[in-house]
Amino acid sequence: MSGIAGVSGMRPPVGGGTAGELRSAGLASDPAIAGIAAGEGVPLGRGARGESVRTLQRALLELGYELPRYGADGGFGAETEAALRAFQRDAGLQPTGRLDQATVRALDARLAGGGGAEGAPGAAGPALHGPLAGEPTLARVAAGELTLASGSRGPAVRILQEQLNALGMDAGRADGWYGNRTAGAVRRLQAAAGLPQTGVLDAATVRALDARLAATGSDSPAAVEDGTSYPGAGAPGIQNPRFAGADLAAVAAGRTTLGPGARGEGVRQLQQALLDLGFRLPRYGADGGYGAETVHAVRQFQLEMGLPRTGRVDRATLEALDRVAPPPGKMLERRPDYEALFEDGRLDMTIAFGYDEHGTTPGTVRSTLRGLTEQGFRRIDPQALAAEERERLGLSGERYLPGASYYHRRFTDPETGRPIDAVVRVITPDSDPDPANVAAMFRRALEQDEVVIYDGHARYGTGPDFDDIHSGRGNFVIDERGNPPDSHASRPPDYLRNAIRGRDTDLAGTGGPGRYQLLYFNACSTENYLPNLRERFPGRNTANTDIVTTTLPTYIASGPEHVLNFVSGLTGRASMNAIEERAARVEVGWMDYFDERDAVRRAYGENTLVGSGFIGNRGNRVVDRP
């Protein structure tokens, strides 16, 4: 995956490593894990199965992390996730419980001895200067012979800590022990240097440290204590210059948090960072006042980063913002992972239409299908195709559902020039006489397809529904409780709650395609789906699943335009920023048509869509803020 200049994401950039750089024989021999190490594979997480999971489990057991019930059984369950989180905490990494690029590298370093005692010097490699010169272990790191990581100890680690402190990276006391604080300081250095933020001192990182020391003329240690501000930053350990001059020292030191009622430049800069990452402050923007809108945006960011969703900016939230926000005056242009979507030469999509009691669904379906035809799609009958063609279009197995209709278009990837077959499966309430079977078709789409689009009612935040609201048979329940009490959307009425009582969530029993997936829920205020989609969907996380939801109750009549905007955006490799902008124009256009003057609703209409998971996607770009 190609990196984002100056930005760390949930998905590591490509080019930070190759399979050949893994020194542990067990990890290097596994193609999937080697791919993750190279930044080219989808991270492993809960629900994954197979030999790669077994390789991970064996590595954890070898390093002393217990799997007492199941051992190396090849199934990535709660036990494996807990052991991996424990390793990540010990390695100074974010404890996501997913095997990503940084975690593979840290595992490799520990298994190969990079995290143990320091060895004798080998080849000199590129010469180091100043305070790093002459230290044999650091010379070996610079030569690419070993790495230092959590658990390492000795004189080289002490020198590393001293020089990180001299640069204001806050490695803590220079005691020669590579712990969480040292790993965090290394990640801050890597972020500043535009390197993958692994927390592991590798050749590229030690050279970046050496270059920075030479540029600053540093030749002596300068231990930094908590609460000390650093030149050029706004607070202890805060490196992104966008926070310079902000009074965030107490937050960065963990002495206080920012929340409702706070005001000032620090709040404004935090708000601007959220906006530049794509989080919404539709009414007030970066006004320096910490109100309900800012609480909501902070919660969305915390959900994205796997942090407790308190709505307050604490030390961990500030550090995450510091790590992923682009430089001052810049914004993140977010993109779906098109490389993953197009890599097999086919784009498998499902568009599912929900039921409407007022009879609008057939018209919505007709308008959408007419728009697909205008985009170049043609309807196909999978059973009439030759066997070879069915196989090429992915319609020869379980993906063929007799009640669905299918559309095909071959387009040219505008970036690579490769031909891509886009195959759209369309599911409607009329796809089967039994609404439960239609809901099962939607579940099948979630388990099989790269792109899944739902257009219909959100059913008060409970989930997609393919029959009358008084029945539970056609419901795919995302959250039985529906919209939360603090949402601007309404709570489910009693008859809907009674219809789905006892369902909790249907996400728990839904598998996944085992690869990158993009989900779009075009219905009223579907951002309320996000907590369950992020926290209760087996095997799905921000590294392998991007989700697009709505911020407000949308017009039923706008559905076809929104869906077609999304489809055309994907086949044209559009950024999410562009897709969101077009969606806002569609929704505001309908507001004008209906003479909608409500200022609050209009503000949300100008920010109709919200994306989750896009921070860190390959292909993202940092661009000038308009």
Query: In angstroms, what separates the terminal alpha carbons?
Result: 26 Å
**Could you list the spans in which at least 5 consecutive residues all have pLDDT below 50?**
1-20, 114-125, 218-235
Q: Quick one: biggest sheet?
A: 8 strands, mixed
Number of strands: 10
The number of distinct helices, counting runs of at least 4 residues, comes to: 22
| Helix vs. strand class | alpha/beta
Shape: globular
Radius of gyration: 25 Å
Q: What's the arrangement of strands in the largest beta sheet?
A: 3-4-5-2-6-7-8-9
Q: How much of the polypeptide forms β-strand, as a percent range?
A: 5-15%
Rounded mean pLDDT is 85
Helix fraction bin: 25-40%
Structural commentary:
The chain is of the alpha/beta class. 36% of the residues lie in helices and 9% in strands. It has helices spanning 25-28, 31-37, 51-62, 78-90, 101-111, 136-142, 155-166, 180-193, 203-216, 249-252, 265-277, 292-305, 315-324, 338-342, 361-374, 387-392, 435-448, 494-500, 530-535, 559-571, 576-593, 599-605; strands at 330-333, 346-353, 378-380, 405-412, 419-427, 451-455, 517-522, 545-550, 609-612, 621-624. The strands form two sheets. It has an eight-stranded mixed beta sheet, with helices on both faces. It has a two-stranded antiparallel ribbon with strand order 1-10. Strand 7, helix 19 and strand 8 form a beta-alpha-beta unit. Mean pLDDT is 85; it is low at 1-20, 114-125 and 218-235.
